[in-house]
Amino acid sequence: MKRPALTLRQYVGWFGLIVVFVLVAGVALWRGDILKTWLDPKVPFQTYTPPPAPDYAEPSAWAMGEVRTSNAGPAAVFFVHSTTYDGGRDWNGPIGDDAADAYLTRVVLPNYAGPFAQAGAISAPRYRQASLYTRLTLREDAREARAFAYGDVADAFDVWLTRHPTGPLVMAGVEQGGEILERLLREKVAGDPALRRRVVAAYLIDVVSPATPLAPQLPACRSQAETACLVGWSPVSDDNDGAAFRRLKRALVWDARGRLVELGDRPALCVNPVTGSTDTAPVDARRHRGATNATGLEWGVHPALMAREIATQCERGLLRYTEPNIESLKPTGTWSDRRKSRGYNLFYGDMERDVQARLAVWSARHIG
Q1: Which residues contact 347 (CB under 8 A, 6 or more apart)?
Q2: For the chain, domain boundaries
Q3: Neighbours of 185 (CB within 10 A)
Q4: Is the pLDDT of residue 13 over 60?
């Protein structure tokens, strides 16, 4: 028995379904490339006009200005936030962008500035940050935009120092902020012995930096009994060798002239936040002090910590860790949010303990 021939309407219907399927499959397959193209400013950085500069004499230029909790210690904390601006038109984000500020306040500050709240008063400058797009490409334009962001933070640091002429100093930066902080330490701190003595520690969080820093006066911390040293790590889960390879292959670090260049074959810095040392031995999960998802938490409220969850090891310059099977410690959000610093902190309790231990050592040497 012959099947009835397809009508023109049926042909059109099937053709439409095939077109829709191809389009959906294409979007799924090339979604990242499509969104990256959308985020590209599409103008050379050399001809680009950046947004107006912040005035650090004004409170509006600070996401946090001398914010102190009731149990804060004696340190002054300078915190440089990570990427919160997606881009699309600008290489560098304008001060006061609503979406970027919302992500900063809701996600970055409670998860990454929070561990330093007990150390002292926290100051976090807003700055014309390089957009998310600059973290997704190795183009020279993107490198220049990232280098440009340093100037604002350097100006903010000068203002902050005038407000804190004495006493212990803690500095911390996450991702882009850590990259900027590494250069700031070399250019503003390392060559000043009096200022260097005031440094409790500098934390380079979720950033690849050279194991042999350009400023040897600020070496990697070998134990929690040391001060005026660097605590830096770039985390990759232990079952993701591909991400580890890409992290080091695409890493950009500062050269002596203030340019971002490939890390190349140089070893990367890894100070395990659980031990506060450069020891490369495996660290059992029992020593883990606690992860948390503090996103949306009101400032000053201490988050609940999930301890003894994560084993760690510094391996080939990266912090390899076991992925916790906890729903609140899973990536969420939009495509762009998933490419920013995580919306949770796997080492919140470890960072909190580390800075308290070093601050106690510093105080015993300089005050006691």
Answers
A1: 273, 274, 288, 289, 291, 310
A2: 10-39, 45-366
A3: 23
A4: no
